[in-house]
Design goal:
The protein has 4 domains: 3-132, 3-Layer(aba) Sandwich (Rossmann fold), CATH 3.40.50.12160; 155-271, Transcription Regulator spoIIAA (2-Layer Sandwich), CATH 3.30.750.210; 275-391, 2-Layer Sandwich (Transcription Regulator spoIIAA); 396-450, OB fold (Dihydrolipoamide Acetyltransferase, E2P) (Beta Barrel), CATH 2.40.50.140. The model has no long low-confidence stretch (mean pLDDT 94). The relative contact order is 0.08. By secondary structure, the chain is an alpha/beta fold. Helices cover 33% and strands 21% of the residues. The protein starts with a strand and ends in a 7-residue tail after the last strand. It contains 12 helices and 19 strands. Strand 15 and strand 16 (411-415) form a beta hairpin.
Length: 457
């Protein structure tokens, strides 16, 4: 009754939350198993950013309720953003769920499971579903545990580090402030200590995570020497022995002030890649979205970043079909999307989310129009990506060897620009930065051969 499987939907924040829950459960004596058919407890860590994400998790939970009816002791829990967003209302659709745990209560999961197991072991009635979606002061400091590799696994060389929770930006389309709460940051010393401990365990690359990661510490820490708290944190993590690469996500364009742009020029461990959400290239739609920048300011920021770090790789988020988006608005988005020449993008069709201002706007765009615009940007992205990856053929790229690929026959790693690479290597190179000559490419993957040390590039 102690085998747990955690299925995660959504973003890297959710992945990090799931890992922390897994580490806390292991510390209590639970076993984390990769096969959901072999578990006694199944936890769904859910996403609410789009309606489709919620429906996917609800469909999975509904299917698993059938298993509960066959196996009365089987425990089913729903965690995270959908749990926070819907709370006890989920029971109308999912009456057999045992746990509904919100985004500020992940650290309570082991205790709740202990109570369920104890009651069932004693033959006591379990009672009503446990629902805990209350806010909790200091909850941002509880996502700090990292799971150790299982015996026989290759060591982990990359890790996510949660530095900030919640969001105060109030974008008209977004449910995150409702699901994640107000903006809250962890103490800088705690984040640095976590990164130091990870380096001592062999981690070589850390990705700093937050809903608006560039807002880190702005309510709690002063600017020092002209540097924002976030840039101060970057500097301190950069100084840690063992850490060779730093990434961060997800930022807001407003967070890229001069000190952060300059950091790309002076902090070599800061990877030559940034995710810079655009959402729209139309100033009119940006205002309706409550995104406080213009297309011109976004364009200037892209130019400043590429001047600070030549060869910088950019990814972005774009929403098509926001209420009131006209053909001219979309044309402006398409033009800016093409001009910025993104390496990667997440293109979403607007999805109304209950409780957000945009859900009440008139001028909702027809689904067929959304799909047409979505496909047009995806085609442009594919063209961009093929061209940009093809330009890397014949070059030598620095790659962090992360481990074996999915087939287990070759090895995988990423460039500083966040391109996935596949190559032959020896297991002893896991965790090392190697030189890889690129021989061929696909839309998003590079294939190459290691350059022996001392060989000409």
């Amino acid at each position: 009754m102690n085998r747990v499987h955690i299925k995660t939907y959504g973003c890297q924040m959710n992945e990090r939350d799931s890992e922390a829950v897994a580490a806390m459960l292991r510390a209590r004596g639970y076993r984390i198993v990769p096969d959901e058919d072999a578990c006694d407890i199944l936890l769904l860590n859910t996403c609410s950013v789009r309606e489709a994400a919620e429906q996917k998790a609800i469909g999975k939970a509904a299917y698993l309720q059938q298993r509960k009816r066959r196996q009365p002791d089987f425990v089913l829990g729903i965690l995270g953003c959908m749990a926070q967003n819907r709370g006890a209302d989920l029971l109308a659709q999912l009456p057999d769920v045992d746990l509904i745990i919100g985004t500020q209560k992940f650290h309570q999961v082991p205790g709740y499971l202990d109570n369920l197991r104890s009651a069932r072991a004693a033959g006591l009635p379990v009672g009503e579903t446990i629902v805990d979606i209350a806010e909790e002061a200091g909850s941002q400091n509880t996502i700090r545990d990292h799971a150790e590799p299982e015996p026989g696994d290759e060591r982990r060389v990359t890790a996510f580090v949660s530095i900030q929770q919640g969001c105060d930006m109030d974008c008209a389309f977004c449910v995150v402030p409702r699901t994640r709460g107000d903006e809250r940051s962890r103490p800088l010393a705690d984040v640095v200590a976590e990164c130091r401990a990870l380096a001592e365990r062999g981690v070589r690359e850390v990705t700093l995570l937050g809903q608006i990661v560039t807002s880190y510490g702005r309510h709690d820490l002063p600017r020092t020497g002209g540097l924002s708290p976030f840039v101060q944190l970057l500097e301190q993590v950069h100084a840690l022995p063992g850490i060779q690469r730093i990434r961060f996500t997800s930022p807001h364009p407003l967070g890229f002030r001069g000190d952060l742009v300059a950091a790309y020029a002076r902090l070599p461990k800061l990877c030559a890649h940034t995710h810079l959400p655009l959402q729209s290239g139309s100033d009119r739609i940006l205002r309706a979205m409550n995104r406080p920048y213009t297309a011109a300011k976004y364009r200037a920021l892209v130019a400043a970043l590429r001047a600070a770090r030549p060869g910088l790789h950019l990814s972005t988020d774009v929403i098509v079909g926001f209420p009131g988006e006209t053909a001219d608005d979309f044309a402006a988005t398409r033009a800016l999307f093409a001009e910025c020449d993104f390496d990667m993008a997440y293109v979403f069709k607007y999805s109304p989310r209950s409780g957000t201002p945009a859900a009440e706007l008139t001028g909702q765009v027809d689904e067929a129009v959304k799909e047409e615009r979505n496909q047009e940007l995806l085609a442009l992205l594919r063209e961009n990506s093929l061209r940009r990856t093809a330009a890397l053929v014949g070059t030598v790229q620095e790659v962090l060897v992360e481990g074996r690929d999915q087939d287990g026959a070759r090895f995988t790693g990423r460039t500083g620009g966040n391109r996935v690479c596949i190559f032959d290597a020896h297991p002893r190179l896991v965790g090392e930065l190697v030189a890889l000559r690129i021989e061929r490419t696909s839309v998003s993957t590079l294939y190459g051969e290691l350059v022996p040390a001392g060989a000409p590039a």
